[in-house]
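Internal tracking record. Fields below are filled automatically when a chain is submitted to the structure queue. Please do not edit lines marked as system-generated. If the sequence contains nonstandard residues, flag them in the REMARKS field before resubmitting.
Queue: standard
Priority: normal
Entity type: single polypeptide chain
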Amino acid sequence: MKNRLLFICTALVLLAAGCCKQPAANIIKTPVPARPAGQQNVIGLTAEPIETVRIGVVGLGMRGSGAIERLPYVPGAVITALCDLLPERVEESKATLEKMGRPAPTGYYSGEQESWRGLCEQEDVDLVYICTDWLNHYPIAMYAMECGKHVAIEVPAALDMDQIWGLINQSEKTRRHCMMLENCCYDFFEMTTLEMAQRGLFGEVIHVEGAYCHNLDPYWDEYWNNWRLDYNQKFRGDVYPTHGIGPVCQVLNIHRGDRMTTLVAMDTKSFNGVKIASNHEGKPVTEFANGDETSTLIRTENGKTILIEHDVMTPRPYSRMYQVVGTDGYAAKYPIGQYCLRVEKPADQVDAKHISDEKVYSGAEMQALQAEYRNVILTEELERVAKEVGGHGGMDFIMDYRLVYCLRHGLPLDMDVYDLAEWCCIAPLSRVSLENGCMPVEVPDFTRGAWNQVNGFHYALAEE
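SYSTEM-GENERATED OUTPUT FOLLOWS
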């Protein structure tokens, strides 16, 4: 706890140097390329309704195989194409669909590095669902949109600023949806807490925290060609920020009335990373770029703060942190779920110094409180089916359900290409901060001026 407080205090000093009426030289500027001629932003983008959403899935490893098992249960969704570099994975997914009694896909693509091009060109594909390794997310998404397809991309969708701006420009140019598959926005605690925040239960939300703390020791061997460990060995910074930052950005209405402006990052050196790499390579490794723990502090236009952490190298218990701090309340999911709310005292108990008390809700009391604030999209039936179908306890299914629901009804998606950009940019910008002595770095306005065009985050719903 002391180390964490020390980081926050130090980072706040650095942020103050960069954004509190100091010369521009104290902050590293991040360029915003001009919007290509003839393009407009895609805030609230809608497209023609699709009665049956025909889906092509690219990448059938850990995440892709899970999608094959979930998507057939989503109303109005059908898988029409499969693609993976390894032919046996395509065959396994085909067999899975046959066992479920679902229609056989009309397209199969495998064996070649860019066989996904055929899937993107296939006429009976409306949505390209990308579950490959990180390095291949960008080229597939760009080509799919060029072919007129909507795209949904596993996290992180983009790895550097060039890729981020490329996806933004392509979505604006083609008017196709480009969504990142950030499933943690659909976990039950996060969805309920978002509803509470929107209804003012916490007062004004002023600080939020998120993280990805997950010991990957049991999983490194499951990543094809060791791609994930290799990426951590080559790149410094919070390379996997989206699970932590996505849900809390929704609470803060990022690019829906507020925006991130400045960040500062700090990290440890690589203690365990070099050992893990040495074990995998069978020889001593002396260089490993990513620290075992990275912390990033962000300030917003409206004076709010965000703390994001990344740790996949230590035995630290799994945590996405998820904390919401408001003027009148607090929510925390880890290590135990709880709410703390300011409660006004009865008139006969009020004194000059204490006009309110704090009440902590946990256990059965917390469950009763949550029942009063059921998220607007989380019907009892949807929750039941989600938990039955599964996917990280059901949140994966809710994510897929909402994506298909919005496409079927021609509605704006819950997460747009600017969410993708804001959540992914933490990786390259934290790297810039770290490589420049933990200097403050400017977070660009990816909407190019439209960040307050919408007032507050909300889910689009079809008229019944």
